[in-house]
Amino acid sequence: MTTYHLYGLGAALVDTEIEVTDSDLARLNIEKGIMTLVDEARQQEIVNTLSDHIVASNRASGGSAANTVIAASQFGAKSFYSCKVSNDENGDFYLEDLQAAGVDYHTEVTREEGITGKCIVMITPDAERSMNTFLGISENISAAELHLNAASVSQYVYLEGYQVTSDSGRNASIQLRQHAEENSVKTALSLSDPAMVEFFRDGLKEMIGEGVDLLFCNEQEALSFTQTQTLADAAIALREHSHSFAITLGNKGALVFDGENEFNIEPFTVNAIDTNGAGDMFAGAFLYAITHGHNFETAGKLASRSAAQVVSQYGPRLRAEQHAEILAEVIG
Description:
By secondary structure, this protein is α/β, with parallel strands linked by helices. It has helices spanning 22-27, 40-49, 64-75, 89-100, 148-152, 167-182, 194-208, 219-226, 231-238, 278-290, 296-311, 320-330; strands spanning 4-9, 13-19, 35-37, 55-62, 79-82, 103-105, 117-123, 129-134, 154-160, 186-190, 212-218, 242-248, 254-257, 262-265. The protein is built from twelve helices and 14 strands.
């Protein structure tokens, strides 16, 4: 019996977005366009330096996998998320926000003392996002946070590549993938970030094992992971690691492969102001579609339209009414 369409494992981060300039990033020695792990002192230094900037969105429960699971849930998927939060105010906020988004979580896990993870998302005028993340207690996410019974009754389990940076998180991801395989649950993984591929490629291959059912990445990540020079070559090489895949191509749309056929997904033209969460939204919309009887081409169109909408506004999520509007537009 299937209870959940999607089960996710990932970091629990309370996100705050700030508008910055390229000169702000240079002044703070922040590498543009990637996620950088920092300690709490460094994160506080950034916040203090940028205290006069406009906070472009209210805080929200985040983390890459969480954004994807929440997106799928708000489109209509029944979802479950495993994460680790502390017994603090941000932890309370995070779980309440998950619940408000319609996502189930492991209520029986004892919350430890510590600090719930926080992410500062800096948006430059070209819409690029640069993230400095203090993982807090999420750094210690482990198999103890897994709810294998919930995973067993899911159509898909979803893993975020960011977990590769933590030994316990990587091991938990591998255990979850293996459990899914043993219980005929499909597996999906996102490579998450170019920096994850550049510095942790071997660890990602370990997380993937002999192959996942569905892999998400952008073009840069695809080329780096497969160590190829062209998109066509990367698409062939990815088949060694996943039965199917979706490669996002920014304003060029996407390329998806369903195991037999490739589909070029046309882009939806928008005025991009904030790319934070675009890949997460793409994955969430895509997973919603394929767990609700739609083929990869339709899933790609829904995902591309949803990602285009999210980059045209601030924050990694759509408003509640936008999900229904996009579904009606793409699927009818």
